[in-house]
Amino acid sequence: MAPLTESKKRKAVTKDVESDTHAVSGEEFRFDSSGSESSDEESEIELIDDFSDESEDESIDSNLVSKGELPVHTRNGKPGESGDVVVQDSEDEDEETVNYRITKDANGNDRYIYDEINPDDNSDLSEVDEEANTIGNIPTSFYDAYPHIGYNINGKKIMRPAKGEALDALLDTIEIPKGWTGLTDPDTGKPLQLSQDELKLLSKLQMNEVTQDGYDPYQPTVEYFTSKEEIMPLSAAPEPKRRFVPSKHEAKRVMKIVKAIREGRILPYKPPAEEDESQDSIQTFDLWANETPRDDHPMHIPAPKLPPPGYEESYHPPPEYLPDEKERREWEKQDPEDREKSFLPRDYGSLRKVPGFEAFVKEKFERCLDLYLAPRVRRNKLNIDPESLLPKLPSPEELKPFPTTCSALFRGHKGRVRSVAVDPTGLWLASGGDDGTVRVWELLTGRQLWSVQLNDEGPVNVVRWRPGKDAVVLSAATGDAVHLIIPDILSPELESASLDVVDAGWGYSSTASKNSQNSEQKGSKVQWARPLPSLAENGVYATIPLGYVVKSISWHRRGDYFVTVCPASATPASLAIAIHTLSKHSTQYPFRKRLKGGGPPQVAHFHPAKPILYVANQRVIRSYDLTRQSLLKILQPGARWISSFDIHPTSSVTSGDNLIVGSYDRRLLWHDVDLSDRPYKALRYHTKAIRAVKYHPRYPLFIDSSDDGLLQIFHGSVTGDLMSNANIVPLKVLRGHKVVGDLGVLDVDWHPREAWCVSAGADGTCRLWM
């Protein structure tokens, strides 16, 4: 093989490599493409031969190898002319590894780029610089005639850097477009254009600045969870004052300030005196000093309000407000002044379909004209004081006398005291109770004068004195009998007169005629009898056996008649009410049939001046004329259960025209008989049932007693004028009785002359109120 002429030799760079590397690889050679075409152009070849030794201790010297010493092969694999140099591979071509890659340069020629050489640990080279100049010891002056100054490790020419004048001239000739970055968009392959905001953003990122405008990096830290460790107390109560320890230092400072204030060294603050800004040189005048006073401006009279819209003005009125075709034609024919309404009602499916009102502006203008031209007058509203609507009642101080305090207490009964009564003289008080005794007391002192045991098993339900002062007769009802008693407390003359009144009836049957006797026997089914010897010795002179329990006794004002009532439901209707004649010792039953409506009878009273009998059932009160034997009137108090009633005792022409009714449903009712059969006034001052009501025989007073232990005193005046109503004024509430077994005050009675009253309670006592 002929050696290559006119070729310069280069040092072969040898390196220590591992033992498994190939001896020589033809791909490690790099030939300049221009060296084969022109012999004048010098070509430099850097040869790197890798030799592998079998042992690590051996070292192989690298010799200078010229091109002539290398075998030259043609493309056919035979040695021949100079051209492409192909170095044969080792025997095992399959195991050979390629350490370069072929790319295209800017001219489209092949470009070989070798991989980096990784030196072993014993090598002096730690890092390979690809751009380093590899000309060795050759001075750079040899390359003055060339545009390059050497070659890098890959055999690429290292171009001579441009000088200042040439660089400025080149930059002046190049026009840099706005937003030029020198980058290429990977998606489009076109130059990447960036806006000024994006460039600012990139510059901030390079400077490690915050990209957001107005951002404060030194904002105060907000602690979402406090870093302070708080110790919660066992109790949330505030610290007590006893734990307060005053500060001695603060006390000294305060005392020091106090001492300074006392000595006058510290003065209180005084606001600076305001300087008079007025200048004497400037003379001012008051324009309104001599102005005559004017009246206040006229009061503003507000415009009258428009009437609220009706159904016809609705967008969806009822069908009866919609006009038909006939009404529509008639409305259109009328003149606008004669039309009752300025519009016709129309029906729309929804509010958004309602069009604008054509005459809206005209209507508002006419409204303004009416307000401007039409005169208006202010009408003052009635200023009525609510207190003036209430009736003017007199003061209780002006209506005295009436009882106010308890002056005497009567004790002696065992159990409840069911009934009390004051005799017509006002000296004695009779009482009956659950112990079956009747007791007579001295009213003013409360001393017991006399007593009798009428029943050992049952109570005494009611006691009543006979009216009149000519004789003293006490009637008492216990069980199914009524006893007539003359107490052993009278003077001999009064006792003799009382015996004559009671004994007059025993001989009536022998002296009366046969007709009257027969009629009397037909009308009477009860025979009066003399009492037992034990009762006769104690002042009982007559006994009337009725067969049923008696709960009510009421005397006629003349003292010859009294009526009894047996209210039990088992009592026959014809035997419930009985009228007794004392002078004849006879008993009559005026009713043969049960009274229709109202339940069984409860109480009966005679009219104080007329032959009229009032009978109260549970719900109604009937009045009967005894001479005509007919029903006069039925009063309807409206109570569920009537407990008692009383008739006004005035002796005027209108006497007996007013009643008071007490009921178990806690109501007190005033009836004006001539006015209506309904109550004139209903009073409700008690919380429990009302047991008894009573008019005073002389004073315009009445009283009621209730199971709540209270007595209520009222003023009730009645005049003869039919145009005026009764005047009722509450006066006093008397308290003193105890409630025992849901029962309070069971009975009450007035003194015949004084404004005193007596009450009987379920606590076993009687009380005198004065």
UniProtKB/TrEMBL annotation:
<dbReference type="GO" id="GO:0005654">
    <property type="term" value="C:nucleoplasm"/>
</dbReference>
<feature type="compositionally biased region" description="Pro residues">
    <location>
        <begin position="304"/>
        <end position="321"/>
    </location>
</feature>
<feature type="region of interest" description="Disordered">
    <location>
        <begin position="291"/>
        <end position="344"/>
    </location>
</feature>
<dbReference type="GO" id="GO:0000463">
    <property type="term" value="P:maturation of LSU-rRNA from tricistronic rRNA transcript (SSU-rRNA, 5.8S rRNA, LSU-rRNA)"/>
</dbReference>
<keyword id="KW-0698">rRNA processing</keyword>
<dbReference type="InterPro" id="IPR036322">
    <property type="entry name" value="WD40_repeat_dom_sf"/>
</dbReference>
<dbReference type="InterPro" id="IPR015943">
    <property type="entry name" value="WD40/YVTN_repeat-like_dom_sf"/>
</dbReference>
<dbReference type="Pfam" id="PF08145">
    <property type="entry name" value="BOP1NT"/>
</dbReference>
<feature type="repeat" description="WD">
    <location>
        <begin position="410"/>
        <end position="451"/>
    </location>
</feature>
<feature type="region of interest" description="Disordered">
    <location>
        <begin position="1"/>
        <end position="96"/>
    </location>
</feature>
<dbReference type="GO" id="GO:0000466">
    <property type="term" value="P:maturation of 5.8S rRNA from tricistronic rRNA transcript (SSU-rRNA, 5.8S rRNA, LSU-rRNA)"/>
</dbReference>
<dbReference type="InterPro" id="IPR012953">
    <property type="entry name" value="BOP1_N_dom"/>
</dbReference>
<dbReference type="InterPro" id="IPR028598">
    <property type="entry name" value="BOP1/Erb1"/>
</dbReference>
<keyword id="KW-0853">WD repeat</keyword>
<comment type="subunit">
    <text>Component of the NOP7 complex, composed of ERB1, NOP7 and YTM1. Within the NOP7 complex ERB1 appears to interact directly with NOP7 and YTM1. The NOP7 complex also associates with the 66S pre-ribosome.</text>
</comment>
<protein>
    <recommendedName>
        <fullName>Ribosome biogenesis protein ERB1</fullName>
    </recommendedName>
</protein>
<dbReference type="InterPro" id="IPR001680">
    <property type="entry name" value="WD40_rpt"/>
</dbReference>
<keyword id="KW-0677">Repeat</keyword>
<feature type="repeat" description="WD">
    <location>
        <begin position="745"/>
        <end position="770"/>
    </location>
</feature>
<feature type="compositionally biased region" description="Acidic residues">
    <location>
        <begin position="38"/>
        <end position="60"/>
    </location>
</feature>
<dbReference type="Pfam" id="PF00400">
    <property type="entry name" value="WD40"/>
</dbReference>
<keyword id="KW-0690">Ribosome biogenesis</keyword>
<dbReference type="GO" id="GO:0030687">
    <property type="term" value="C:preribosome, large subunit precursor"/>
</dbReference>
<dbReference type="InterPro" id="IPR019775">
    <property type="entry name" value="WD40_repeat_CS"/>
</dbReference>
<dbReference type="GO" id="GO:0043021">
    <property type="term" value="F:ribonucleoprotein complex binding"/>
</dbReference>
<dbReference type="GO" id="GO:0070545">
    <property type="term" value="C:PeBoW complex"/>
</dbReference>
<feature type="domain" description="BOP1 N-terminal">
    <location>
        <begin position="143"/>
        <end position="403"/>
    </location>
</feature>
<comment type="similarity">
    <text>Belongs to the WD repeat BOP1/ERB1 family.</text>
</comment>
<feature type="compositionally biased region" description="Basic and acidic residues">
    <location>
        <begin position="323"/>
        <end position="344"/>
    </location>
</feature>
<comment type="function">
    <text>Component of the NOP7 complex, which is required for maturation of the 25S and 5.8S ribosomal RNAs and formation of the 60S ribosome.</text>
</comment>
<feature type="compositionally biased region" description="Basic and acidic residues">
    <location>
        <begin position="13"/>
        <end position="31"/>
    </location>
</feature>
<keyword id="KW-0539">Nucleus</keyword>
